Fold this protein.
Amino acid sequence: MNTLAEENYLKSIYHLSLNDSNVSTNQIAAALNTKAASVTDMLKKLADKELINYEKYQGVTLTSSGEKIALHIIRKHRLWEYFLVEKLHFKWDEVHDMAEEMEHISSVELIDRLDKFMDYPKHDPHGDPIPDRDGNFKKHELQPITALRVNETGIISGVRDHSTAFLQYLEKQQLTIGKKIKVTEIIEYDHSMILEVEQTKIHISREAAKNLLIVI
Amino acid sequence: MNTLAEENYLKSIYHLSLNDSNVSTNQIAAALNTKAASVTDMLKKLADKELINYEKYQGVTLTSSGEKIALHIIRKHRLWEYFLVEKLHFKWDEVHDMAEEMEHISSVELIDRLDKFMDYPKHDPHGDPIPDRDGNFKKHELQPITALRVNETGIISGVRDHSTAFLQYLEKQQLTIGKKIKVTEIIEYDHSMILEVEQTKIHISREAAKNLLIVI
DNA sequence: TAATAAATTTAGACTTGTCTAAAAAATTAT
DNA sequence: ATAATTTTTTAGACAAGTCTAAATTTATTA
């Protein structure tokens, strides 16, 4: 099996790949809170194991076996997050760090049984899709609410910023997964938005709006 | 916090302490499947952290803070074992290795909520007591069935050998936790025993009998 | 109680994953 | 298109945890 460090590198590379096809050394260093030199060392090891495609100075991509491992770790992370929220009643902003540890538990049988125990959830508490045991998932077609115009509606279905601060802010504003929102006004000056959620008006900045995702 | 290796040493020392008050370097090496020289190195580190009392060549004991950590790890191990058996329906001989990984998940809040989720179980699937969050537990007064004489009865409540092989053997013989047994005969020649469990007669060796624990 | 055996520790080395400082390559801006 | 800047890699070092081989201490036994 792979070491904990290797797993964390693969997971980070996967997440970064969603925005840029080639992931740079510095991006990985920033994501993992480490130094570029350390990243270079690890990239060589991962390339030796054929988990990434790596050419000096050119950034990296995951190989299919690297991606498979990354998706399995993400599956575990999201299933444990679901467990923590749905069964142990943690709040959505409390579960990330615990799941960071739990995602490294190795048993495949365990995670399949956990999946069954919770009746095969499709999304984690933040709206992110949970890959199945083969790594497949429907990538959801979400849009930031900034895509909406006045009087248009949507259902809150995900976030782009997973920070505790943002999640707590949303919780406090009642802006949680599944809620139906309607844009009642867009302030021209700063592009902030006034939303209607369950008969209440909520004013959010453009900054926040960009990180709140909906299905239309 | 402590490293994974440190936690495993503390746990092993705790278990070995139950049989011998001073635990030797070689005992620890055997338990952890490592070399005596490695153990000596680690013992120095643990002594520096005041988790064990260590004097060269004299073996070790846990300090109270070392014991507290050991009991917390054991609490986590046994609660996760209970979870795996009761909620995910694993068999009692399948859960040890998974729990070995899960016992190192650090969140105290998580384990307290898990405890509550399962309604505060007192014993793990092998009959071992689960310490509460303060490390307290009733040490059960179990005896091997070799303590019984003919026609005496008891309730199976624990095992001394936790190996997969022994657990599977017991399972196959219906000798599981909670079953009431009666000794119907003791063979003088080899001290093997014939038990009656739910109207069935079962013949077990003295070797096995010594590892099967009951309350009278 | 001296010799032998067993247990334990020390010394020196190796691996993994990290770091800093310096060198090399790639990018950007003049 | 060359200089300046940024990014990446290399070189060398360190901590944690482990190992083998040798030295030392303790225990056993004759």
Observations:
- Chain B has eight helices and eight strands.
- Residues 24-26, 36-37, 39-41, 56-57 of chain B lie near DNA strand C (CB under 10 Å from a C1').
